[in-house]
Design brief:
alpha/beta, 2 domains, four-stranded antiparallel β-sheet, 26% strand
Amino acid sequence: MAHLLQAAQLLLPRLVEWRRYLHQHPEPSFEEWNTQRYLLSQLEAVPDLRLKASAQTGIVADLITDPKGPWIALRADMDALPIAEQSDRPYRSQRPGYMHACGHDAHMAILLGSLFLLSYRRSEWSGGIRFIFQPGEEKSPGGASLLIKEGILDEVPIQAIWGIHVTPQLQVGEVGLRPGPFMAASDEIHIRLIGRGGHAAYPHLTSDPIAVAASLLTQLQMVVSRASDPRSPTVLTFGRFWGGTAPNVIPTQVELAGTLRTFDEEWRARSKNLIQHLTRQTAELWGLQAEIVFAPGYPVLYNHPQLTDLTRRWIAEIIDEDRIQEIPLWLSSEDFAFYSQRIPACFIRLGTAGEVSETHQPVHTPYFDIDERALSIGAAILAHVALRALEMKGSKAHKIV
């Protein structure tokens, strides 16, 4: 199977060209219009490819050798982040205030590459492959949830789905997998405490929302430290505390905003009830009103254990097995999780750290970059996994897992 990796390496100049164009032209969530046009212009070169727009700015591309055979899906995300790139590299972002700081430019190039590789090898597999170029991964409700509502997983009998994500925490040539719960569910929390303001010299005549909010922040951490099972990670972080206009005025209201990250859906629901109860109880104790809103985020990303084991074995056919790592739980969230809640799914981490220091910078930072040698490895992995999943089994459709 090494020939597939060699073919992907021959494709590397085009992969780099695709990735750099996309990197130079980042677009925010659900506004990926130019990105969509560019991808369609490249896909026009593939014969007998069934194309349609999805979730407005997304693309679904179906490559079919036998419509009655098994179906699988491969997915890449498209949107950029509102981050101003700090770089002098020639392919830096040309759109002020936006950049592909999470590697979605690489994901699209990798998916394009895998599509071309699989198109060249139509005689080697039987069935259908749905390539999903998905908008809006970075912004709730997430493009995945919208595509699922459109019927993307129901129009054809998709048995399994794979996604890939670059990471500077692994070296180029390394791959990370984890069966079972992999990435956290994430929910936003917005709290407003409304009280009676007044002069800073007379706090007894007010119901001070700043003092109560400060106390509440401490109390809410008890939900994590004492109510949650310590064997199931939970992170509650407040990143915004806003209120007041002057140092000698007690304001009438304060706003807090944060995120709750969990790995168990039952605990996820219970913890939100505890946060709500504690917030209202604390506010009532000090004579304030509490408004609390949870903005539902992404569910737990669950890697189907059997599919992940198969994926590990298949990847080991084209790269050294000792370069495939079982990686720890990730507290960040991903809307690929919506697919994983519906059908067997496997999310792969692809190493992109190389010799240049920028390739070791974390995602979601203005200095993030990748070692582009990883592009051919990612394209070969996705193509090889698809080939192995759709191995010809005579004329009968077979179950993958």
